[in-house]
Structures are given as structure tokens and as C-alpha cells.
Give the backbone structure.
Amino acid sequence: VYIAAVGGSASDIANAIWLAKDGGCSYSAWPDYPSGSTVPGQGAVETEIVYDTRYSAPQPSYGVSFIIPAATPVYFAVNVENASSLPSNYVALIKDAIIAQFNGENSNTPAGIASKILASNYYGAVISAVPGISLQGILVGLSGPATAYDVTMGIDQQPSLDDSTITVTPV
């Protein structure tokens, strides 16, 4: 079983895996990669020791391994109508709105491992952030400049975003 996780402490993740797995489940798939090393194209291996608390002392211990996927930058390209009515800080407002939407701060699901990121899901956030804006379009990509309507993250990719990967162009 391939297990990738992001967020939380390594100990909490390992305990959650231990409690959720089946008795015969094999999931230590990285014997050639010790904890802290990187599996090419997948991410960093974490191995935590978990104790089986169903037994009295001495409790058996097990190494629980999982992957922490590498951060994968996501790029956005936003085109807006070049209008005199745009506020002077419209670029910052748009970037902040896209970042908030991406992170799930608008009561939406954040971008995550194995998720599909649809550019169209960002229209509402941008329009709400800059009232009266004429939004021409939003594109997304896994390299710059963004050229697609959607991207799908792999199970080994943790999407990341900051304002440097968002371009806003008045047209």
C-alpha cells in the first residue's frame, strides 16, 4: 500500500496509519530508503516507531513508513480588462483571493494530493475580491506560464502556491 500524507506531526500520521491498517497489510515499500531520504519522483520517506498498546509492557514496536510528497508549484495566469475603474491594489487583491481559494480559506476544499485544480473554481473568489472587475480568464498549470483550464496533481505531488506563481495581466 502506498501511503502519502501532508500535515500533522509524523508521529500522529504514523499512529493514524497503524490504527487504520488491516492486520495483513504490507506498507513498508521503501527498504532502500531510510527515514529522511528522498524516493526519486515521490518525496521524502518518514518512518516512525509505533507501539502496539493492545499489549502490556513490553509493548511490541513497529516501524511505520510513509511518503511526504514533494511540494509542486502551481501557476495561475489571470487576465483582466484594463479599466480605469480598477483599484490601484487590484493585483494584490487578485493574488490574495486565489491563494485563499487554493488554501480552502473560503469554506472550499483546499488543493491537495491527487486533486484536480479547475481554473474556473477561482472565478468567484477573484470577482468577489475586486468588485466591478471584468475578468477575461484564468488559466492554471504546473509550469509557468499557466496555459490550461485544469491540472491534476499526482499522488506524489503536494500542490503549493505563493504570489510569485500568479501572474495578473491587464488586457
